[in-house]
Amino acid sequence: MSVFVKRVYDPAKSSDGTRVLVDRLWPRGLTKEAAAVKLWLRELAPSTELRQWFHANPQGWRFFRKRYLKELANEQATAAIEKLHRLAGRKRNVTLLYASRNFSHNNATALKELLDGMPKPPSSVGRGSSGQSRIRKAKSL
């Protein structure tokens, strides 16, 4: 299974394989042709609340990642992860696309880590841990 992560604004290449957009919103100013997206899995995007919190607190990557993986425990996200795992298991390249300007810390990199460590689709990413907890505000210095 070869999973790659790439910014959706970067030009498409044949080596990308199946290009999958994992953001909730379509990237601003980008046409469908230019994006060359084969599949759009909105269900795998973090909640608006979590995304906005991380944008305001980029130093909170560990908290974002933990909370994001908990959000992936719902039925729709679990089904989308299984679909993504089937795609990646076909011995073809899969490229997860994101729009964020943060190249190393975004939901696509967290998904890649999840898929890379997963020999089979999850029965859940933490089904029991899908409790709806508030996002803690970062302490100001």
Q: What percentage of the residues does DSSP assign to strands (E)?
A: 5-15%
3D shape: globular
Q: Give the topology string: H per helix, E per strand.
A: EEHEHHHEH
Largest sheet: 4 strands, parallel
Structural class, by secondary structure, is: alpha/beta
List the total number of helices: 5
Number of domains: 1
Low-confidence stretches: 126-133
Q: Helices and strands in order, then pairings?
A:
Elements: E1 2-7, E2 18-21, H1 32-35, E3 39-40, H2 48-56, H3 61-71, H4 75-88, E4 93-98, H5 107-116
Parallel strand pairs: 1-4, 2-3, 2-4
Helix pairs in contact: 2-3
Summarize the structure in words.
The structure is a single chain. This protein has 5 helices and 4 strands; from the N terminus they run E-E-H-E-H-H-H-E-H. The protein is of the alpha/beta class and 141 residues long. The chain has one domain. It has a 4-stranded parallel sheet with strand order 1-4-2-3, covered by helices on one side. The termini are far apart.
Brief rundown of the structure:
The chain is an alpha/beta fold. It is built from 5 helices and 4 strands.
Give structural attributes:
single chain, 141 residues, 13% strand, alpha/beta, 5 helices
